[in-house]
Design a protein that fits this description.
By secondary structure, the chain is an alpha+beta fold. The protein has a domain at 6-206: Glycoside hydrolase, family 65, N-terminal domain (Beta-galactosidase, Chain A, domain 5, Distorted Sandwich), CATH 2.70.98. Helices cover 28% and strands 26% of the residues. It contains 16 helices and 31 strands. The strands form 8 sheets. Strands 11-12-13-16-9-8-7-6-5-10-15-14 form a 12-stranded antiparallel beta sheet, with no helix packed on it. Strands 1-2-3-4 form a 4-stranded antiparallel beta sheet. α6 crosses α9. The protein starts with 5 loop residues before the first strand and ends with a strand.
Amino acid sequence: MKEEPVRILDGNTFVVSNDRGDVEFDPSVPTGLFSYDTRFLSTWTLSVNGERLESLAVDDLQYYEAKFFLSPEAETLYPNSRISIIRHRWVRQTMEERLTIINYDQMPVSLTVRVDAASDFADLFEVKERVTKKGSTFTRIEDGALILGYRRGNFHRRTVIRPDPTARLDERGITYNVTLGPQQTWVTEILVEPRVLTRSGRDVREQLEGLSVTRTQTDRDLDEWLNRAPRLRTSWQSLEGTYQRSLVDLAALRFAPLTAPDQGLPAAGLPWFMSIFGRDSILTSLQSLPFVPELAAATLGLLGTLQGSRLDDFREEEPGKILHEFRYGESAAFEEQPHSPYFGSADSTPLFLVLLDEYHLWTGDDDLVASLEHRARAALRWIDEYADLMGNRYVSYQRRNDQTGLANQCWKDSWDSISYRDGRLPGPARATCELQGYAYDAKMRAARLAREIWGDVGFAQRLEREATDLKRRFNQDYWVEDGEYFALALEADGSKVDALSSNIGHLLWSGIVDASRVQSIVDHLMSPRLYSGWGVRTLAAGEGRYNPVGYHVGTVWPFDNSFIAWGLRRYGYKEEAARIAQGILESAEFFEGRLPEAFAGYDRELTRYPVQYPTACSPQAWSTGTPLLLLRTMLGLEPIGDHLAVDPALPTNIGWVGLLDIPGRWGRFDAFARGRGESLVPVVSRFRG
């Protein structure tokens, strides 16, 4: 499939097709109808009179629906088809398709309309290859429906295809015999239901109250979601479009697990990561907190519920640890993958504590913080008792699952992301620098909660002492003297993994950097080696493994830059933060307002537009959250008690910005700012109650 695939989604259920709306096997694109990590349709093709159709246009109306305008394939250079076909598709927990055929001829026509359907029930990890399934499949026709099924032990999946009664069903699809007079229209609808079955054969989702929604409810839900979010008004028109796109994509990525259908937290990204990811959900919730705080509440509640409680080497679970990834597919069910859930991330746990405090600062939700006290204390114990693998009081990781576990368990989790400046890879036990920043921030924030909400002053004082000691040791042990920056990681023997990377920007966000070292870190971040003109690269140009199109070794990640900008603001570097915001938001214009997971780290002078990373997820949760966090940094929004402080510093290309109805413990608040080239002037901020 050479054309750009068409994707529509609703949480964990999504469809990827070509521009005709057809689904066919493609090793380069995971096409099909997917739900809960299983492909429920691997073939879904439409033909008329035995001929495939030609795409005229695609209208992706909303994230959950699309229209495909089709005609019979042209036989001449100047097509003049008198038959029009419109394929209108919706996705909720199900897929619905309405076929409309219009005869514009002056003569009647007889048509054979055919939809071929099949499913390989591939696990999402298998879709790039044609695999031999270990279970058994079946196809049958029952009660006016075509049923495709798969069974392997207690793992049951089923696709139920329901056309209208005029259809003729066989085990390979649906046929309609249609006769249309001049100017007549024929319409039919098909419902496709992906079913996750229990051992007894019942659909799990049918047992959950309130899960089924209508098209009208989906429309209403999106309208309510957008209406609850602050309204943006700005002189930079494309920024308004990017902001709106981010809000819509966040709505699309809301994922409700089977065990908590009323809890919508952000899934990581389409197509590979439409599931629960601890780190991704936490960071996206942090980015979006001033705009849609309900995501943070859902994320905290669900991740707390799934917190580790035992030692399990296969899943890398430990008491108090926050999960990395949770999957529902066949490979997880039969422990061919450890994702049921998998705990192989060293940063999700301290970041959970950071989110808990930031959520409380914005919302004043004492009840949630109180209810999660024992979860938070367990997370803090994990940092002290399980995360110190090297015995040096630093958070580190080393996989215990050597077969299917992750070698790198920080956000840069590809195999070669952690390296020395000469390109050498360190040993398996690694304490990356940003993990120490997260641990410092987590303890400082937990100390505030202990003092103000949990009523444990002694515990708060202990956490503050530990955090202060960590900051002191870190600034000594990680500092690379000849480069004047912090090492990417420490090895078990204390060796400094000395590559220059974007991780140093996360240190600013955490607050662990001593004042005497800040200027050097800022200079590196804004230098040509790291800053491409579009954003900060993951690895500096000139390092041994630098590659501008390498996944974590030279690309620009929008989310990474949003937290770097937040860190720059924390230390008072407003102009530098605004410069990063400008580059990333300008790049969004080239992606129709939807920032991808990553794009190439080429110098801006070399390319007139940012080059997208070849297999980047889109939409991707923390890229979707990036414009929101950048808006926060540009306006300088910070909760202080029951008030919202505004300290704007706009990029030079923005004349003015107004963000209206910002929610928080203060009620609703309006923030305005005006930029005059290099002179940045705050205007009015107004409490709305």
